[in-house]
Specification:
Aspartate Aminotransferase, domain 1; 13 helices; Aspartate Aminotransferase, domain 2; four-stranded mixed beta sheet; 2 domains; binds pyridoxal-5'-phosphate; 15 strands; alpha/beta
Length: 465
């Protein structure tokens, strides 16, 4: 394998949208070529690992909201490595803290005492709503593990097995979290490993009952009771839901949705789990946790992605009496709570507070949402703009009356944006929702570029729409 770059500069499509320059100068790249990287990946990695774009992008450096490929070309990251980089790529303070920790101690496991795990757990508890007693954390390496643990605790605590999740949900790719997930594209045809029933989501744009809010009386939420009565024994262990569905296409429920569902679940003796893997850490702007937007307090909260700004880190936080169930057997996670991830998580949380990241998500997210709503006036392709803070979605439709999903057009906008140095996300069952969830350090100048770029890409992908 050569050590010099031979790949040609990937051309940036001429665009009227101007990418704000970064004062960060990426180091000259001297690793294997892009073609070599592709060849090795093809030969030695499981083919189930997929890459975005017809011509995948090779990223070799990141700084705050920007990324650079092997040719030195700069991109605006509007997807944050799938909603994971919360405060910026290689944020200098986090890099310093990782380096300091890695030079001292990389691994111990929780069988020995170490200061940072407790400090981080306390910091997480301090960010929970006052009076909630959501205090005790178990650290994992990912969101799927955190959801496995939360549902296991809920089942152990209630002594029941049946669970509810939402249709259009994504809760992970492990065997049991695939059971909680309810977007067909992400479900492998496995024998059932979990006893899960799915409740209608609060997806007003595509109402599962064909009704209109608010005259619908939020039937989607109320239907949870029918699901319990008809499809379970009536003795449910728990309900798990994302406050805003991420993978499902930034589906944002009506404000009273979760309150109605939580009340029903509790009436039947179940515990409520909020999957904050995407919505946590201030991303929704107004509140630190997504569930706070809906005026509910869960019994267990799961988190990952943005909590570590890129570290393999997840957690489940709950009340002490629920956490107590974990003492009934021995449970162990080799890397959960390791010193490096803990240092990274703690530093991330400190930066969120110091740099007022949540406030920024609110302000810049509000500015972005308004601009996207303006764009909706111009392009009939945009069926709906939704979401909160810096967790936004743009659902594309071929026809506003029929709402036929514009999946091909969405894929084309996505490609065209990459060619103009904008990396977006994409989701929804039909792959017709642009997902915009950038590192929360993004500026209004970045937003101006992003919206100009999407405008231009729609003109190319769906002329006249
Ligand atoms: C809401 C939600 N929960 C859980 C997960 C699973 O997290 P991980 O991929 O870290 O296992 C994801 C991942 O996308 C997610 O979006």
């Amino acid at each position: 394998m050569s050590t010099t770059t031979t790949t040609k500069m990937s051309p940036r499509t001429q665009s009227r949208a101007a990418l704000p320059p970064s004062n960060h100068k990426p180091a000259p790249y001297s690793g294997p070529t892009r073609d070599e990287i592709m060849a090795v990946r093809k030969e030695y990695l499981n083919p189930g690992i997929f890459a975005f774009y017809k011509d995948p992008v090779c990223i070799v450096e990141g700084h705050m909201q920007y990324l650079w490929d092997e040719t030195g070309r700069q991109y605006l990251d509007a997807f944050a490595g799938i909603v994971t980089v919360s405060v910026g790529h290689c944020h200098p303070k986090i890099t310093q803290r990782i380096q300091e920790q890695a030079a001292k101690l990389v691994h111990t496991t929780t069988i020995y005492l170490h200061p940072t795990i407790g400090q981080f757990a306390k910091a997480v508890a301090d960010h929970m709503p006052k009076g909630s007693n959501l205090k005790v954390s178990y650290f994992t390496n990912a969101g799927s593990e955190a959801n496995e643990l939360a549902t296991m605790m809920a089942r152990m605590h209630t002594g029941r097995g049946e669970m509810l999740s939402l249709r259009n949900a994504y809760h992970g790719g492990s065997q049991s979290t695939i059971g909680l997930t309810a977007v067909g594209t992400w479900k492998f045809p496995l024998p059932v490993v979990n006893n899960v029933k799915h409740v209608a989501p609060g997806y007003c744009y595509r109402c599962p009952f064909g009704l209109t809010y608010p005259s619908c009386d939020v039937k989607c939420a109320r239907s949870a009771e029918d699901t319990i009565k008809y499809e379970t024994s009536g003795e449910i262990a728990c309900f798990i839901g994302e406050p805003i569905q991420g993978v499902g296409g930034v589906v944002t429920p009506p404000p009273e949705y979760f309150k109605i569902v939580y009340d029903i679940v509790r009436k039947y003796g179940g515990l409520c789990i909020a999957d904050e893997v995407q919505t946590g850490w201030g991303r929704t702007g107004e509140h630190f946790w997504g569930f706070q937007n809906w005026g509910v307090t869960p019994d267990l909260v799961t988190m990952a992605k943005g909590i570590g700004n890129g570290a393999p880190l997840g957690a489940c936080t709950t009340r002490p009496e629920i956490a107590q169930t974990m003492t009934r057997k021995i449970h162990f996670n080799t890397f959960g709570g390791n010193p490096v991830s803990m240092a990274q998580g703690l530093a991330t949380l400190e930066i969120i507070d110091e740099e007022k990241i949540q406030q920024r998500a609110k302000e810049v997210g509000g500015y972005l949402k308004n601009k996207l709503l303006e764009l909706q006036q111009k392009h009939s392709l945009i069926g709906e703009v939704r979401g909160l803070g810096l967790m936004l979605g743009v659902e594309l439709v071929k026809d506003r009356q029929t709402k036929e999903p514009a999946s091909t057009e969405c894929a084309e906008v996505f490609e065209q944006a990459k060619n103009r140095s904008l990396l977006l996300g994409k989701g929804g069952l039909f792959g017709n929702v642009l997902r915009i969830k950038p590192p929360m350090c993004i500026t209004k100048a970045d937003v101006d570029f992003m919206v100009d770029c999407i405008d231009e890409c729609i003109d190319v992908a769906a002329p006249g729409k």
